[in-house]
């Protein structure tokens, strides 16, 4: 069994297996599964149909690492970049960039900011014209994340993130990402908002409801999103997710031909740590 690869993507997979297509490099990226309780829900964005990657799909907030995300000037509280590097089997600079990208992209795509005035605090309100101006400047890359935090006297709270998974885009795709998945609970007092941009809509959904929509064909999802929602559906609360021991296994789905059809074979992701 495998995930069907119809049309153009199936043809690219066939070309790759025949040795006529070379893979493009995968760019480092970070994705955050944002959670809230009563009942447990996840925050999902529906990407615009015009997007070059995952057009029309439901996804979690996230995106590529900006080279400036690895800036040592980023104010930091919580597990160090070196500790995150051990978790993701990455060098310290890469780990620093991934964690910063996770926090920055979450703010850009949901308005939620995992940062605070000190190592034991978190901002409670990120609404208003000045916050929106900063968010848009971050998206436009006219403001770096380090500058944004410094301007507001904030420190990144890496302790509010939990490493969850590591997925690499299949080799035949023209746009490829080396993506680390994080989970985080919605901070008290903060709220998400429909910030537009790459998304045509946003929603808080129970994992089971999102999966049912995907199975019914009313919500398109890529395999990493579907698998992650399946894993989230096993929990009752955000606290349960954050407390779950987790080992990170790199997953890169592989194309294969089965009974004359091109499919994507998806190995198991990391389970609870032994």
TrEMBL record:
- UniProt-recorded name of the protein: Nudix hydrolase domain-containing protein
The UniProt keywords, alphabetically, are: Hydrolase, Magnesium, Manganese, Metal-binding
The UniProt entry, under SUPFAM superfamilies, shows:
Nudix
Residues of the Nudix hydrolase domain: 25-227
The keyword Magnesium is assigned to this record: yes
| Any one Gene Ontology molecular-function term assigned to this protein's record | metal ion binding
- Where on the tree of life does the source sit, at the highest rank? Bacteria
Asked if the keyword Manganese belongs to this entry, the reply reads yes
* InterPro entries associated with the record: NUDIX_hydrolase-like_dom_sf, NUDIX_hydrolase_dom, NUDT19
- Which cofactors, by name? Mg(2+); Mn(2+)
**Family matches, as CDD domains:** NUDIX_AcylCoAdiphos_Nudt19 (cd18870)
Entries under Gene3D superfamilies matching the protein: Nucleoside Triphosphate Pyrophosphohydrolase
């Amino acid at each position: 069994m495998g995930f069907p690869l119809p049309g153009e993507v199936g043809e690219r997979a066939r070309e790759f297996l025949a040795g006529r297509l070379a893979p493009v490099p995968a760019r480092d990226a970070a994705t955050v599964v944002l959670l809230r309780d009563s009942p447990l829900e996840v925050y999902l964005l529906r990407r615009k149909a015009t997007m070059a990657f995952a057009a029309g799909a439901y996804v979690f907030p996230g995106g590529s690492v900006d080279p400036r995300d690895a800036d040592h000037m980023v104010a930091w509280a919580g597990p160090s970049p070196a500790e995150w590097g051990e978790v993701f089997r990455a060098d310290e600079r890469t780990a620093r960039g991934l964690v910063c990208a996770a926090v920055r992209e979450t703010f850009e795509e949901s308005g939620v900011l995992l940062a605070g005035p000190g190592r034991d605090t978190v901002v409670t309100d990120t609404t208003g014209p000045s916050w929106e101006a900063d968010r848009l400047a971050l998206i436009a890359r006219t403001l770096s994340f380090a500058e944004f935090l410094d301007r507001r006297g904030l420190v990144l709270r890496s302790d509010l993130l939990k490493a969850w998974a590591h997925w690499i885009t299949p080799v035949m795709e023209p746009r490829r990402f080396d993506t680390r998945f994080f989970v985080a609970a919605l901070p008290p007092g903060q709220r998400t908002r429909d910030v537009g941009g790459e998304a045509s809509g946003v929603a808080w959904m129970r994992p089971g409801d999102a999966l049912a929509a995907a199975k019914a064909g009313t919500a398109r999802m890529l395999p990493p999103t579907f698998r992650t929602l399946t894993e989230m559906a096993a929990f009752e609360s955000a606290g349960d997710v954050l407390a779950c021991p987790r080992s990170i296994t790199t997953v890169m789905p592989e194309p294969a031909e089965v009974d004359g059809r091109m499919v994507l074979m998806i190995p198991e992701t990391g389970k609870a740590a032994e």
